[in-house]
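Chapter review: from sequence to fold.
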Amino acid sequence: MKHSSKFPVHGSEVPAPGTGPEPAKADDTIDPRVLFNKLWMGKWTIFACTVACATLGLTALTFQTERYRASARVLVDTPDTNVVNIQEVLVDQQFDRDTVLNEIEILRSTGLIERVIHELRLEYDEEFNPFLQDRKAPLLERVVESLPFEPTLRPIFESAKLIKPEQPPLTEAATAEMTRVGIISAIRKNLEITPVGESRVLAIAFTSTSPRTAARVVNEVANQYIVDQLEAQLNSTRSATEWLSEQSTELRIRMEESEAEVEELRAEIAEQEGQSREVTQQRLDGLVASLARARQNATVIAATQARLQNALEDGTDLNSISEFRNSVLIQRYRTEIDDLTAELQKLSRYHPERRSIEANIDDLDERSRREAIQIVEAIDRDLQVALDQEKITEAEIIELENRLVEQSGSELKLHQLEREALANRSIYENFIARLKETSVQEDLQKANARVLTPAEVPAHALTSTRNRIAAASILGGLILGTCIVLLRDALNTTFRATRQIEEMTGLPVLANIPSIGKKAKRGDIVRHLMDNPGSALSEAIRNLRTSILLSNVDRPPRVIMFTSSVPREGKSTTSILTALTSRKMGRSAIIVDCDLHLPTLSGMIGAGSEKPGLLSILESTSTVEDAIHEDQETGLHIIMSRTGEKRNKVNAADILSSKKFENLISELTTKYEMVVLDTPPALVVSDARILSANVDTVIYTLRWDDTPRGAVMDGLRELQSIDAPIAGLVVTMINESKAARYAYEGHRYYKGQYRDYYVEQ
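The token string follows.
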């Protein structure tokens, strides 16, 4: 009866054929419809965050002081900084991004701003001077000062850093410095300088609470910038004139010294004209050729010596070496050895003269070897002579090279001094010409910038800032609400989609059971199924029954167990509806309440209490026929678990695993075509694991958007550990109107949008 199969629980094992669909691969792409529907589901959260942030932004705007913005435009030319090349003064230099940044920093410099403060007397303006402003102490500090025990309480609040300690009075110098720094910081904060496109125009803008002050500051900044340009150029020209004058004097002295050195060296060379550098060069070339031949000869002798020495050490036949073969003495010894060898071959093995002849042959071999050694030693001496000759030649070459260097050094030094003298004269003449030009240029200075558009007093306060704050508040609210909605969706740990369930469990979803209302009781659901055979609920239950029967076409399951992870997941209701639908379709069915801990079927359909229950059958105090209750309204056959039959010392697991219970199930299968077992949750007690051994298939139920994923996975692991024949899962209590708005496959395309199809006309 038991069907053995394996199925994966969160990727633990690969399912056996027919046990469930293969999990689909993860799709990294984001469907815009999915994202839109998630945000649409949380539209009220987004709306509330937007309204709250917009309200805060608008409230902040009511306390904001109106500000005015004035602007001017200045054309900037490139400065004449090169004081050496007059052509670069006449030609317009490149105006690049670095030049723009340099000019912007000049406009924001401390020195320029200080001149603006002095000219406009801004140190007497409350907007800029913090010491002239009516600064109130923080609220907590004012409260502490108003208390009668202020001297006692102040140290306590100061130690807790809730209020600032009293500061000693500032000196006049410290006050002046703080005032200067504060005014500079205030001006620099509200001063805005930006380039206009790719042009040489800079836009200077200033924001102030006074429109007249804004215009005055902008115009004064532009004027001081032009004054700064003139002063910088004048100082640069004067410095250049002084520097050129000093450099010209130094260059004149250096030029005279270099020309004197040239004349002195020429005199020395004239005294040494009797010597010929060409003859020395010819002798050097001849010695270099001789050195090359000497090195080649030494290399050949060394190779010959190494070859003969290796032949002697290896015992090579001397007659095979040409140097040994050319020796007359070795040839004579070889001839005598050949004659003795021929004579030895004529004698018998035991001839008395054989030993004497062999001794003579050995003696001749030894003489030949000594002669060969003498030949090698002679070659060694030749090699040493060749190496000595090579060293002598190298020494002569070095001597001639030194002599040649000495002869040519004077001429080279003369050429070098002549070039230096010519360069010094050229530089000197260039500096003299530039000195005259800069002297004239000092009287022709002009500013490298001019004001194109002076600042006008603004007639209206800034609205862009207020608009930006309002827009930022609304945008911030939208972003905050969106983040909350997406975070809430990301933190959801329940199941909402059929595809999601199948991917995580590896098991098919056999049916999706819709909810008929949050307040509907179990009896109301049964009556809804009976009264509305064409409803979506009826169609879902028929689909579930069909899926169960088709899970094994050859042997359709007859004993079907319903279980879940935790209570209140619609397990008992679904089991009743399945059995009831089977009976309405002409197939006999019975449902057995196997939950001995918390019986539910009797209260669900309002059955009377006169019939005995499951424990009475198993204790043999009642027959099966007497315990079967037939509901008058639905005609469904039921075996209930009665609360009054419970025994304190009776263990439900022992009863359900007994042989009597197995016999009961076997007896019911002979009378009914479908036996439905309503069992306790798998994670609460072990009854479901025990009962799975006596069933043909297990239907696992979970509640839509309620049952935690971890609970489902843990419950499936419990059943997997005993090879329970799980056919698939059933999703219960689906809110179709809500599920249709989720952008998940499984509901949006048929359940939620086409509900009218199931309603009888």
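Two observations follow directly from the output. The mean pLDDT is 76. The first strand starts at residue 68 and ends at 76.
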